[in-house]
Amino acid sequence: VFLPLQLFGTIVWILVAATQVPLPLLQGWVMFVAVTAWFLSIVFLSVFLFGYANRIAVNWNQMDFIFHGATFVFYFGAFLLQAATTSLHHFPRKFNATTQERILNGHEYNISIAASVCILYIFVRGTEICF
Fold it and tell me: Which ranges carry the MARVEL domain (predicted)?
């Protein structure tokens, strides 16, 4: 279950980092969520793979539910922010300038769409796992 989330989390991380980040506040949160969830899921997976789950007296079903519930909420917010960044494609960067430079050029717009779709996939997978 963790491997598709790892894969798509890594893809989101790469796609957002590949753009010029026109809106650092919005895409900074998306990067924070992607990197943090990726790192924590690696730690969570390592605990099970190396057998530390038997040594630590924690209700692992509850921890799994809390982890996926938190990533569910954070990835939903990240999806909304990434979709908002993508929707600004047609607006000019500077309204009073003589040249109409777009916030996202065509290539960055496509990358932003791909990142939004990957975040949406993670969100849907998190929903299936949690509920």
Answer: 1-131
Buried b (16+ CB within 10 A) or exposed e, 30-61: bbebbbebbeebeebeebeeeeeeeeeeeeee
Global pTM value:
0.73
Total domains in the chain come to 1
Which residue range forms the structural domain that includes residue 121?
A: 2-92+101-129
Select from 12, 5, 11, 10 the least CA-distant residue to 79.
12
Burial class (CB in 10 A: 0-12, 13-18, 19+), 64: middle
Amino acid identity at 57: A
- Per-block average pLDDT, block size 10, for the chain (131 residues)? 73 76 73 86 86 85 85 85 78 62 72 79 65 52
